[in-house]
Amino acid sequence: MTSGDLFGAGAGTGADAAYPALDLPLAVRMRPRSLAEVRGQEAVLRVGSPLRRLVEGSSGPAGPLSAILWGPPGTGKTTLAHLVAGASGRRFVELSAVTAGVKDVREVMAAATRERDLYGRHTVLFLDEIHRFTKAQQDALLPGVENRTVILVAATTENPSFAVVAPLLSRSVIVALVPLSDDDVAAVVGAALDDARGLDGAFTLDPDATAHLVRMAGGDARRSLTALEAAAGVAGDQVPLGAAEPTRDTPTAITLAHVERAMAQAAVRYDRAGDQHYDVASALIKSMRGSDVDAALHYLARMLEAGEDPRFVARRIVIAASEDVGMADPTALQTAVAAMHAVAQIGMPEARIVLAQAVVHVTLAPKSNAAYLGIDAAIADVRAGRGGPVPLHLRGSGYAGSARVAASAAAAGAGPADAVYRYAHDAPEGVATQQYLPDDLSGRVDYYRPTGRGFEERLATRWTWLKGLLRG
After folding, report:
1. pTM
2. Residue ranges per domain, the chain?
3. Phi and psi dihedrals of 421, rounded to 5?
4. Mind listing the pLDDT tens digit for each residue in 407-429?
């Protein structure tokens, strides 16, 4: 448990707070001291938003709200909790759900009550990883949150709807944080290079090293700063003996090789905004289409290791499952869609396993593009103006004036006005023999041409039989 006094001596909460000790991790030293330094969360920190009002100490007539911060690592959950604590001289207490229990929660509540009654000072309880608390442990927070004995700021990487008990959810605002953009991460890194709290201008970062560091950070500001600190250590160790230590006047360059050594990971030559993005994505799709599972997994790995958005990869797999596999294995689309939803829920690095399963399924499945070719052929006819009026017996009859419309259509040659629709379930084999296509296309088109591969072999036999029954 960390008290507000200890926090104040460390990273500080306001713009005038003392700089943290330089032996603390770079990510701690560079923790934003004000809203102006926070990167990447503009939507939840907009003027008038609940979180911004909480940070600024504007509580309104109902008093300060509690908040549950939900987002991936490195998006600023701990930072925002510290900023909330810094408003109006609030006391800050930090607990981790990994090590704390009900006894710790009750001690915090008792101390918060004393602070409020004796000094009129609010206590901010920052509870990290609240999803690790059991229901009973979360229930212990309810009285303090309900009576505003504490302002609870809880952090979680899990969906609060499933990870937090309903009574606590109803007493808090949920704030969804998003991964930082590449530009935001680059700005965080740039500030750390120059700021006196950080590297104080003693190092520069080569452009390709910056690109690799930002890419590997994956929207995680803490990870980018940890990697930068490690890379600076590697670069500093390679300064020749007797040479001056790196300073603002004699800075040392951090190269791509330094970053690669620090992260123990080689840079993947891949530009998410350039040609390589499309080249590798194309290679993945064509390898799945070509049924080479090793090649498909290779290109999947290249995309993920380069920091590609796994949701983009999942969408491409869904398209391939329908375009290249289709009805040869209908379950491939089910696997791909399930993977897309799973990736959105769990994120990296576990998402790589889900994506790999979907890639393997789509790649090894029998292939058919019959459905893809069929819809394109039908669209081509529609765009060419082919396809006359809908046969009268297929038209809707449940709207006002339908009989009058049918009579007018019959007079125009669209078919007899007394045409009767045959209900398929009343017909033998459940197939009603009647015309379904417009007159100008009936008997003249063959959009769907099933292959003899996989499940579609069975469909080909059935479709041949159906066409003979329907069209004679």
Report:
1. 0.56
2. 4-176, 182-263, 275-364, 391-471
3. -75, 135
4. 555 555 555 545 678 888 888 88
